[in-house]
Design goal:
Length: 219
């Protein structure tokens, strides 16, 4: 069922891409200079096949909520079984990619990236192969394979986070969208595919991937 939902979502994204291309071509052919079309797309679609049994994903696969009760999910190799995490459905092995996460009033969350080959089972997940920023409810912590867990302070409580992966230049950076403040930047040698990941241990407030607006206008 989860696989079917993900495949259906990917079909919708593919169809939307064709619609955008068709609109652009028609606008050019008709020389319509005043027409503008704005659409919203999610830069990251969550992969239900990786989601912890204690996470509930939204129907559009862009938000997650922690649930104390474990759902009867199959224990496939891709799925987290200890930490309450989920991955994005698309991995990146070149270029620059960014996505925004609304953490809002969530009291215990983690956002970051992991390598495709990194082990997701058991309780060793945060010991290597992970680049992240985390809020424990009391403090903010960042970590990478090159840097042990390090506390850092912020002027205002984080509400919206941006994660940016520059694969070609080997950087993973985190910033506060509200204050436009750079929080942490990790520099490393990237050799394999990287996936976005999120974790939540808060029942009262979800984590949500924010959509990006794309405006199409004739040239």
């Amino acid at each position: 069922m989860m696989k079917d939902r993900l495949e259906e979502m990917n079909r919708h994204i593919s169809a939307l891409s064709h619609i955008i291309k068709d609109i652009e071509e028609r606008m050019k052919a008709s020389d319509v200079s005043f027409l503008k079309v704005t659409i919203k797309l999610s830069p990251v679609i969550l992969d239900p096949n990786t989601a912890s049994p204690q996470l509930i994903l939204s129907d559009d696969l862009t938000s997650l909520t922690f649930n104390k009760s474990r759902q009867p999910f199959p224990d496939n190799a891709e799925r987290f079984d200890f930490f309450r995490c989920v991955l994005g459905s698309e991995g990146f092995k070149s270029g620059t990619h960014s996505w925004d996460v609304e953490v809002g009033n969530n009291s215990a969350w983690t956002v970051g990236v992991i390598t495709a080959s990194y082990q997701r089972k058991g309780d060793n997940f945060f010991k290597a192969g992970v680049w992240y920023v985390q809020y424990t409810g009391k403090e903010y912590v960042s970590q990478s394979p090159e840097q042990p867990a390090t506390r850092f302070s912020v002027k205002e409580k984080l509400r919206r986070m941006r994660v940016q992966l520059d694969w070609d230049n080997g950087t993973v950076s985190f910033s506060d969208l509200v204050t436009n403040t750079q929080l942490r930047t990790f520099r490393t040698v990237l050799r394999e595919t990287f996936f976005p990941f999120l974790q939540s241990i808060c029942e009262s407030s979800p984590l949500r991937i924010l959509p990006v607006k794309i405006q199409i206008s004739s040239i």
